[in-house]
Design goal:
This protein is α/β, with parallel strands linked by helices and 332 residues long. Helix content is 44%, strand content 18%. The model has no long low-confidence stretch (mean pLDDT 96). Bound molecules: 5'-O-[(R)-(carboxyoxy)(hydroxy)phosphoryl]adenosine and zinc ion. The site of 5'-O-[(R)-(carboxyoxy)(hydroxy)phosphoryl]adenosine has 20 residues, from α5 and α6.
């Protein structure tokens, strides 16, 4: 079975073709970074317009790279939510029209389940059940994953997502967008031990997160040291990053301990963070856990994860009606 996946939830127009649930025949990601950069963040209306321009060429490229034509596609999956509604509508509507025109099934896919499933696009995926920490621009949540389509939420952020905190701190430091990657680069040149930010562990035994206090702590530090901020930027980035990484590692290990799961995963855009990857590797090894982190290109938004998840919905006999709609917020 050839399944075409489409993802347009934020600032990436992506299309991929999968053969069943294993072989990624093609995966195209067209980034809008240069469009949003002058504004210091994603401008929703601009994102929608750029998706409209990019969707046809991106899908054509995905088919071409897969060595297929439209006739070879057996089903279409598209991200249904959560995300920017205007952006989601472009990919979702395109996918519905494509499936309708060709008389093939369409299935709407939850973006978060897509991220969770990225570990299955790697050669040695975890067995079910396992614990997955999803860290992205819009979400920070821990799940007990039971199947490709079923996951129980164990805890989530009460305010900002980890990626959002990276983006906001980058903005406060005048470093701009895309914040996560920039902070990661600055942090590499800084000393994480020179400044201490309070670690927001909250209740140590629970799996909720909070990053808004940390963000305020960084802001206060910046305000106090405005006169020689330039000299301190790398250390601020390093200390902030280390604080976030410590909290994420602590919560993931605690969730594994509480559930008895020996396999843990980190997925989503922030999983591309080098320091997070290093530290969780060490911690998981010390705790005797088996860690799964997707390759960098599978951490950020992509359509291979949507096609994969769509395949598993279809396998369970689930498909979406052409009247189905997108949603902006997580369905829980
Ligand atoms: O999963 P994703 O591509 O989109 C959402 O679903 O949100 O995640 C984007 C988030 C952004 O907040 C971005 O700043 C963050 O992932 N990010 C990073 C890194 N690369 C991307 N955060 C920290 N370090 C990175 N290297
Ligand atoms: Zn995402």
């Amino acid at each position: 079975m050839h399944i075409l996946g489409i993802e347009t939830s934020c600032d990436e127009t992506a299309a991929a073709v999968l053969q069943d649930d294993r072989l990624v025949l093609s995966s195209i990601v067209s980034s809008q970074i240069s469009i949003h950069q002058p504004f210091g963040g994603v401008v929703p209306e601009l994102a929608s317009r750029k998706h409209i321009e990019a969707i046809v060429p991106v899908v054509q490229q995905a088919l071409q790279n897969a060595g297929l034509t439209a006739d070879d596609i057996d089903a279409v999956a598209a991200t249904e939510g959560p995300g920017l509604v205007g952006a989601l509508l472009v990919g979702h509507t395109f996918a519905k029209a494509y499936a309708y025109a060709r008389g093939i099934p369409f299935v709407g896919v939850d973006h978060l389940k897509g991220h969770i499933n990225t570990v299955f696009l790697e050669p040695t995926p975890p067995p079910f059940p396992f614990i997955s920490l999803l860290v992205s621009g819009g979400h920070t949540a821990i799940y007990h994953v039971r199947s490709h389509t079923e996951a129980t939420l164990l805890g989530q952020t009460r305010d900002d997502a980890a990626g959002e905190a990276f983006d906001k701190v980058s903005k406060m430091l005048g470093l701009g967008y895309p914040g996560g990657r920039i902070i990661g680069e600055k942090a590499r040149k800084g000393d994480p031990g020179r400044i201490h930010f309070k670690r927001p562990y909250l209740d140590k035994s629970a799996f909720d997160f909070s990053f808004s206090g940390l963000k305020t702590g960084v802001k206060r530090y910046i305000d106090r040291h405005r006169s020689d901020l330039e000299r301190r930027v790398n250390d601020i980035a390093a200390a902030f990053q280390e604080t976030v990484v410590d909290v994420l590692c602590h919560k993931l290990l605690a969730a594994a301990d509480a559930t008895g799961c020996r396999h843990v995963a980190i997925v989503g855009g922030v999983a591309a963070n080098r320091r997070l990857r290093e530290k969780i590797q060490e911690k998981a090894a010390d705790a005797g856990l088996c860690l799964h982190i997707p390759s960098i290109h599978l951490c950020g938004d992509n359509a291979a994860m949507i096609a994969f998840t769509g395949f598993h919905y279809l396998k369970r006999g689930i498909r979406s009606d052409l009247s189905s709609d997108v949603y902006s917020r997580s369905m829980g």
